[in-house]
Every structure is written in structure tokens, then in C-alpha cells.
Amino acid sequence: MAWIVGGIGTTHVPSIGKAIAEKKQNDPYWKPFFRGFDYVHYWLARMKPDVAVVFYNDHGLNFFLDKLPTFAIGAANEYRSEDEGWGIPVSRPIPGDAALSWHLINSLVADEFDVTTCQEMLIDHAVTIPMALMWPGPIWPVKIVPIEINTVQHPLPSLGRCLKLGRSIGRAIESYEQDLRVVIVGTGGLSHQLDGTRAGFINKEFDALCLDQIVGNPDMLAHYSIHDWVQLSGSQGVEFLNWMAMRGALTGRVTELNRNYHVPISNTAAATAVYDNQEGTKRQAA
Ligand code: DHB
Ligand code: FE
To answer: Is 3 helix (H, G, I), strand (E, B) or coil?
Structure first.
């Protein structure tokens, strides 16, 4: 059976790609951020996942405002990226696990999550930057299942809905016959606002509350409305929806293994966290 080894939350700011290309990881500006991935590398080397299920938001590369699914799931054997105009190198293609994707899609629809299925899907910086951060070497040793959540054009799904989506995915993964080790990734956030009069807005206190509560009490965070979230976390702080879905997919006893919080990276409060998932539901039942 497939096993959810744990979860990772990380920002996906595009300028990280430029810092990597220019080998600036040890520059004073970047060092405190990149050091936060030392533990991620150590943990991934031990957990050796086969697949990464990545919750992210598309920023206009594959979907645009004319057609923007609330939830979309990739069902391809390969995902390519393209130049998004950020001045960063275009990422290498990433292999997909289409068989697992279809299992998740079948389970989700049976569970009344009517997702958009994408047999071709371009992935943007919200997938490629986290991949480059998690596996800094020349090989990314996992296949991916990318799951897009609309954090861009209102109305957005609620925090509670994304938590439930994650829970549905978690149950689906654990009912998959193949012996796969699966890591769940949520990208984006934390607080940031890129546009309008509050551009540059960051809320350290609220970010700390989010990182504290997501571990043992994500349902508490699900009580915030999207409107409140924009006020407290900025118009792009709603990318935390991806973290909520990631947390929902962790079916077992969840503990925080590591946390790094660094302000700012570009306009964003950059958080990196690793979560253990002890004894998921299937294992408890076995
Ligand atoms: C930035 C943050 C994002 O989440 C993003 O998608 C693009 C840019 C930034 O802080 O520069
Ligand atoms: Fe973003």
C-alpha cells in the first residue's frame, strides 16, 4: 500500500530561481533562507519518497483568468514548464505518475470533489522552485502529481474546503495498492501582498499563529473567511490554501520536525516546514 511519509511546506518566490542560477545560496541576503532547507535535504534523504503530491496555485502559465478551475489535477506522465517572464532559467521537465493521478481523480470524484483533470498541464514556478529547493542536485528522484488550487481569482475555495480536499487525497493515497512512499508538498505563502496600496504587507504574528496551529489544530484555521485571510495575510497570503490541503493529506499523528521563517524574501514572508506523519489511518487499522 502507498504510505504518506510526511509533508513539506515552502514558499515559491520566483527570485529564488535566480539566486540558485547565480549560486547565491551563501550570500548574506539568501543564506538564512537556504539554510532552512538543510533539514529538508536530510529528511528527504532518509524518507526517500517515490512520489511528491504537490498542492500549488498556477499564476497564469497554464490557466488564466478566462478559465481557472477551483481544483485541477495533473494526469500526465511528464510536466513541462515555460518562460514565465521572471528572468529565471526554464525548469527541466518533471516525470508524472499518471496511474496514481487517475487513482486520486477516481477517489476524489467518488468523494464529491469534481476536479478538472489535465492530461497536459504546464507547471509554473509554484512547482519548479520548490522542486529545486527540495532536491538541489542534478536529479529530482521523484515523480509528481501536481494539484492546482485557485488562489488567484475570487471566489476562492475556503480554508476548510482545502483542508477537506487534502483529507480526501490522503485517504485516496492510502487506498492505493502500490507500495509507494509519498511526500505531500504545499507551496506558497506565507503572508505577502504584491499589488495595491498594501504591496509589501507582511504579518509576522499571524504567520506564527498559522505555523503553530497548522500542526495540531488546522480546523481552527479553517474558521477564518477568505476576506479575513486577505486582511490578515495579504492578497497573496491566501496561498496558504495550499498548505491547508497539504496538512489535510497528513492522515496520521502529525508533528513539526523543523521550521524556518525568514522575512523577507522578495516581498514574501518565507516559511519552510517539515511535518512527520506517524501511523496514518491505514496503518492504525492494520
Ligand atoms: C513573489 C511571491 C509569489 O508568491 C509569487 O508567486 C511571485 C512573486 C514575490 O514575493 O516576489
Ligand atoms: Fe505565488
So the answer is: strand
Query: How far from 118 is each of 11, 50, 146, 167, CA to CA, in Å?
Result: 24, 21, 10, 21
**Matching residue, cell 516559511:** 271
Please identify, by atom number, the ligand 1 atom nearest to the C-alpha of residue 126.
Answer: 6
Alpha carbon distance 123, 93 (integer Å)? 9
Q: What is the pLDDT of residues 87-111, one digit of tens each?
A: 999 999 999 999 999 999 999 999 9
CA distance 55 to 246: 7
Secondary structure (3-state) at 100: helix
- Using only the alpha carbons of the chain, give its radius of gyration: 17
**Ligand 1 mutation pick, 58, 236, 241, max ligand atoms within 8 A of CB:** 236
DSSP three-state, residue 20: helix
Lookup: cell for 57: 496555485
Task: Record the cell numbers describing residue 153, joined without a space.
Answer: 481569482
Residue 165: which region, alpha, beta or left (left: phi > 0; alpha: psi -120 to 50)? alpha
Q: What is the largest CA-CA distance in the chain?
A: 54
1 alpha carbon to ligand 1 midpoint, in Å? 37
Could you tell me the sign of the dihedral formed by the alpha carbons of 223, 266, 54, 283, in that order?
Answer: negative
Task: Give the Cβ contact number of residue 166 at 10 Å.
Answer: 29
**pTM assigned to the model:** 0.97
> β-pairing, 51-56 with 181-187?
parallel
Distance 279 CA to ligand 1 centre (A): 35
Q: Which atom of ligand 1 is nearest to the CA of 267?
A: 10
Ligand of minimum distance to the alpha carbon of 56 = 2
Query: Quick one: cell of 169?
Result: 487525497
pLDDT digits (tens, 9 = 90+) for 137-196: 999 999 999 999 999 999 999 999 999 999 999 999 999 999 999 999 999 999 999 999
Told to judge if 262 belongs to the known catalytic residues of this protein, a careful annotator would answer no
